[in-house]
Design brief:
Layout (H helix, E strand, L loop, with lengths): L15 E4 L2 E4 L3 E13 L8 E9 L6 E10 L10 E13 L4 E6 L15 E9 L4
Antiparallel strand pairs: 1-2, 2-7, 3-6, 3-8, 4-5, 4-7
C-alpha cells in the first residue's frame, strides 16, 4: 500500500516529477534512490503484526513491478505490552533509470496505521549521480 507522499519545498531534482505517489524519471541516468519509513505506536497491539517496506520500479521496458529493495520488521519486538515502540526501515542504493521509469516506496497494508508521517522520520527521494547525454 502506498504512503501518500508530498513535495516539500524544492525537494525534487531537475528531471524528476512526483506523479501520484511515484517519482517519475524524465532524464535518464544513474540515480541514488532512498527511502526511510519509521513505524511507531504508543503501545503494542494485541497481535504482533509484520511490517514490510519496499521500493518498486515500473518501467516502460518490461511488464510488471520490479522490487528494488525490501525489508521486514514486526511490531513490539521484545517490548512490554503498554510500552511505546518504534522501528525504522531505511533503503538506499544507486540504480540506472530510464525515461518514464516510476519509483514507488510502499508498505504492507497492515503497516500503514503505524507509519510516523513526520517529515524527519519518513521520507522518500532520489538524486542524480550522472545523467545520460541527450541523443
Amino acid at each position: 500500500m502506498s504512503i501518500s507522499w508530498r513535495k516539500q519545498g524544492g525537494a525534487l531534482t531537475r528531471g524528476v516529477d512526483l506523479r501520484g505517489n511515484a517519482l517519475v524519471i524524465s532524464i535518464p541516468g544513474l540515480y541514488f534512490v532512498y527511502a526511510q519509513v519509521t513505524f511507531y505506536n504508543s503501545s503494542c497491539p494485541d497481535n504482533r503484526s509484520f511490517l514490510s517496506h519496499n521500493l518498486h520500479k515500473l518501467s516502460t521496458s518490461y511488464r510488471g513491478r520490479l522490487t528494488l529493495l525490501s525489508s521486514m520488521a514486526s511490531t513490539c519486538q521484545d517490548k512490554h505490552h503498554a510500552d511505546p515502540w518504534f522501528d525504522t526501515s531505511y533503503h538506499g542504493a544507486a540504480f540506472k533509470l530510464a525515461k518514464g521509469d516510476q519509483i514507488f516506496s510502499v508498505v504492507s497494508p497492515g503497516a500503514v496505521a503505524y507509519v510516523n508521517s513526520e517529515a524527519e522520520n519518513t521520507y522518500f527521494g532520489l538524486f542524480a549521480l550522472s545523467r545520460s547525454p541527450p541523443p
